[in-house]
Amino acid sequence: MDTLKAIQVFVCIEKNGSLTKAADQLGYSRAMVSRYLEHLENHFSTRLFHRSTRNISLTSAGEKALLYCQNILQQQKLLQELSLEEQYTGTIRLTCGLFILENGLVQAIQAFQKKYTHIRFDILITEETLDLVEAQIDVAFRITAKVSDSLIARPLLQVHSVLCAHREYLEALPKIVHPDQLIQYACITHHSMQNTWTLSTQEQQPQNYPIRIVAQSNDAHALHQMCRNKMGIAMLPYTIVKDDLENRTLIEVLSNYEAPQMTLSAVYSSRRYLPKKTQEFIAFVIEHLKK
Questions:
Q1: Crossing angle for the helix pair 30-44 and 3-16, nearest 10 degrees?
Q2: Cβ contact 20:30 at 8 Å
Q3: Which positions fall inside the HTH lysR-type domain (predicted)?
């Protein structure tokens, strides 16, 4: 039985001078109140009340116990108040790539801080897969197809990628019509990729095609800049290259093939011990990105 709850029942009985009145105030049955009192008396190995058919009064041991129990409840209240204060103050330490920050996350942070003015953010910009515990990260925002089994991932949205290259780079070379030709072209790729790109069509299952890598980076913006500078073909999130594709600075390559769908997820190390403010922030970001 819950000893702390039994202490609350004991103090309430003394305050009301009756088990029945205490039961009414607490919303318990009289039998439940009686069981809590019995539990506490067994726990302390002493009788706390003199009881008769009409009256109830504290024993000498009960008088001493009441002072201690009142103090315990007061300390619990102070701890709860401290906990509530801590839940929405302090720092949320997060990590993400610059691309993610600039495409919705910074606006979510700004809106969240208007609601919770005592929360500040410590943001580590990287697309590397950090050890969240070692780096003391509360939450990581990652674009990935899979996360470690030891981590919790909350999917936020799907990220569509395209193959593209600068118009002038493509004009100087034979037209590329099949992924098998990628090995003949300069390719710019993310560190998370290997020496192949996975592509598929409606008629064809995903297949790995070898590529000739001329440059790699762990940052999507760096890859975008290299692509804009005519260094080769890159696989980039559509949101980064949308304007370039529309004004035809960049041209989509192998448009009838699809790159794997990646997922932007909020990743954290433990659901059980995730601070309340971090839980609230993740939920806030999910709703913000839906708009």
A1: 110
A2: yes
A3: 1-59
Q: Let me know whether 193 and 230 are in one domain.
A: yes
Mean local confidence (pLDDT), 100-119: 90
Q: Which of 83, 105, 131 is the last residue of a domain?
A: 83
Do 46 and 166 lie in one domain? The reply is: no
Q: Are residues 102 and 240 in the same domain?
A: no
Mean pLDDT across the chain? 88
Residues 238 and 104 in one domain: no
Q: Which of 111, 167, 55 is nearest to 288 (CA)?
A: 111
Residue 128 to residue 142: CA distance in whole angstroms? 9
Q: For residue 90, what are the CA distances in angstroms to 86, 114, 116, 131, 286?
A: 7, 15, 10, 22, 21
Among the candidates 65, 83, 101, a domain finishes at 83
Mean pLDDT score, 190-204: 86
pLDDT of 78 > 90? The answer is no
Q: How many domains would you assign to the chain?
A: 3
pTM for the structure as a whole:
0.63
Check residue 170 and give its pLDDT. Answer: 93
Where in the sequence is the domain holding 220, given as residue range(s)? 161-260
Instruction: Give the pLDDT confidence score for residue 216 in this predicted structure.
Output: 93
What's the CATH number where 49 sits? 1.10.10.10
Gap between the Cα atoms of 99 and 189, Å rounded: 15
Lowest mean pLDDT among 84-93, 94-103, 214-223, 261-270: 84-93
Give the C-alpha separation, 14 to 11, whole Å: 5
Same domain, 131 and 165: no
Confidence of residue 143 (pLDDT cuts 50, 70, 90): confident
The closest of 190, 186, 261 to 224, measured between CA atoms, is 190
pLDDT exceeds cutoff 60 at 85:
no
